[in-house]
Amino acid sequence: MAQSQSRGTNMPRVADFNEAVVLNAIRRASGGRSRVELTEETGLSAQTVSNICRRLLDQDLIVETGKQAVAFGKPRTMLELNPAGCYAVGVHIDPAVITYVLLDFTGAVVVNTSHETPAVQDPESVLAQINEHILTLIAQAPVDRDRIIGIGIASPGPVDVVRGLVLDPPHLPGWHQVPLRDEIQEATGLPVLLDKDVIAGAVAEQWAGGPEGARNFVFLYLGTGVGLGIVIDDLVVRGISSNAGDVGLLPVSADEFGDRYTRPFRAFWQAGSPQSLAEQAVAAGVLSADTDLSTPAIAEAAFRELCALADAGDEGAGEILDRSARSTASAILTITNLLDVGSIIVGGAMWEQLSERFLTVMRPIVAQGSIAHQLHEVSINGTTLGADVAAIGAACLVLDDKFSPRPATLQLGR
Fold first, then answer.
1. At what angle do helices 123-140 and 180-188 cross, to 10 degrees?
2. CB-CB neighbours of 11 under 10 Å
3. What is the pTM of this model?
4. Which of 37, 34, 42 minimizes the C-alpha distance to 77?
């Protein structure tokens, strides 16, 4: 017999869900929330909100931060997240660099470190280094070790999040079904979550990108590769296997004003990755013909040299980057017209080198080409979280998994 698509409510989990709803409302509020405001915002009874807040205070997850005057009645006590309420470790494995962060409960970075990704095809030796760096980070962090609730790992896809495996990433040769989650969990003794890097970036924008963040947006990641994290109605779109967001093969054009049926197209990864841009610069004579591009880390150094030349006024370098910006705008138009979102957030290792030039080129192209421009604008902004956004997102995976309200958890069988 086929299983029904409608599922009942798991009533014992309602209390946990309501607690997450209240905590989420406090987290998203700039300056905190009073119990009265929480009652109005969540639709829960005043008694329920009061009981939940008492439990959260007892767990040191929130703190009372003072009084707020109101027009009538007694001043209201404001509630905010307690930064020291808990902590999470995040690790971003990029083919060029591996980044580590420790976040507090508000999503702020307490400590961070990074190192070049070893140019070896032996994942076991890389894993040993990762475990060593995680343990060192935890040992040196000025926090209560018992308050660290887990480790999040952001990896290039594809990944198997159910089994905790990294599956043959294109830029990590030799990484075939690497049991990343279980290896790190065994070495550190902490719970570990594994997710795709672009999905982690989207979660970072939800958790650490600011309390008034958009509920519908896409996070465009520009690093060694290109990828997309999608958030619709405040829920991250992961796909059937949690590998959504691979847009490297998306056709893009560098000619936004040409005939749409005759303009040349190429794959997005060819237009947007540091390796590809450095290769274009070598082919055009902007970079020396003997420029070494043998590894992602070395290619990224060549890309930075290309950016420096463009910033110094080199016309050839500037045209390569401007063409990439137009191609990126082409990708954004396809994405925003398909999903009907109004906000694009861009980040990643290469973004800081390009942000001012790219935003200048992309914004008018997207404004002109948006199908829904008469209904809403499409804003394009860089992440406020810096180059470590994917590592921050990895740590946010842990916070999100434990503390975000998930309606699906109320269904029977979940």
1. 40
2. 9
3. 0.91
4. 34
